Prior knowledge:
Layout: E1 2-5, E2 12-17, H1 26-43, E3 47-51, H2 63-74, E4 80-83, H3 96-107, E5 126-132, E6 135-142, E7 148-153, E8 156-161, H4 166-183, E9 188-191, H5 198-205, E10 208-209, H6 225-232, E11 235-240, E12 249-252, E13 255-259, E14 276-282, E15 288-295, H7 298-301, E16 307-308, E17 321-322
Parallel strand pairs: 1-5, 2-3, 3-4, 6-9, 9-11, 11-13
Antiparallel strand pairs: 2-14, 5-6, 7-8, 10-12, 12-13, 14-15, 15-16, 15-17
Bound molecules: fe (ii) ion (FE2).
Fe (ii) ion is lined by residues 19, 21, 53, 85, 87, 242, 244, 267.
Amino acid sequence: MFSVDFPPEGPFKILQFTDLHLGNRPEKDALTYALVEDMVNDQAPDLLVFTGDIFTKDEAFQPTLIAEACRRIDAFKTPWAFCMGNHEGTHGQDGVRAQKAAFMVSQSQYLLFDSGPKDVYGIGNYAISLKKHGKPAWTVFLLDSNDFTFHMIRGVPSRVHDAIRPDQIAWFQQTADTIRNLHGPVPAVAFFHVPVPEFIDAAMFEPYLGDRGQKVTTPPLNTGFFAAALAQRDLRAMFVGHDHTNSFCADVLGIPLAYGRCSGYGCNAPAQFPRGARVILLWPDESLETYPLLHRPKQERGSRPAVYRPEEKRSGPVYDRFHFFPQEKMY
Ligand SMILES: [Fe+2]
């Protein structure tokens, strides 16, 4: 398992970027790279996490594009991690998904990425231990939310989002339980691309903080990752991407479910939708803070700062900082 040390003081800071969609509209890529650079320089994070859809040009293997991105991200000399999006190509016979991952690893010094156990579905089910004084203080899980599959929808075979598969959920439970058995309860967060269906509950039934610009897109099948995480007890929050104009956070049964803030100028969100990133502060006292940051491209900035924290919409009473309570084990 990878490990990264906590800073000497204060929280561990993760900066989540999502849906860069590099190569999709090449004329926008310079803006996207500038966003990442401005955010990292402003925030000095301890870890960068990219939650999928980094590269989308034709969903094909694009070595020049990948090498360029790895070079630019490595320039921060900060560890970074990523999980696969639905646009990273398919698991199928062409093997593009695995090929992209292997090439990224070969091109980067600072990338923490593991394809994960071979007998577990998906590419990139892995964990990073965040250590304070040499002991695990938090765990970061990354999972592949996979590409597409077919289900019968109202009598028609339909191509739909695949889901986190049962063997991936079992891998998560075993890994988190192993950490718990070795070190006692260690709080954890999970990153993946396509929201689990509980994000619909977050949007419809819970007060939320932030932008809700579109319908929540989830797999039609709920494979139970959320329930498994709740039962395992150590997972404290989930962070996703995928729906480019959603960036809200809501608490479902004590677990904050949060979208990142779409970071790619070449993605299909409206041009006037401010791109950004999400800050996640993991405190040594096991509390968690999270909020988005927005970006002003250079030509629109004037004398204003490149990076700012927006006033977020509140649909009801919501927390700014999550303190957790021991959950009863469900089964
Ligand atoms: Fe996307």
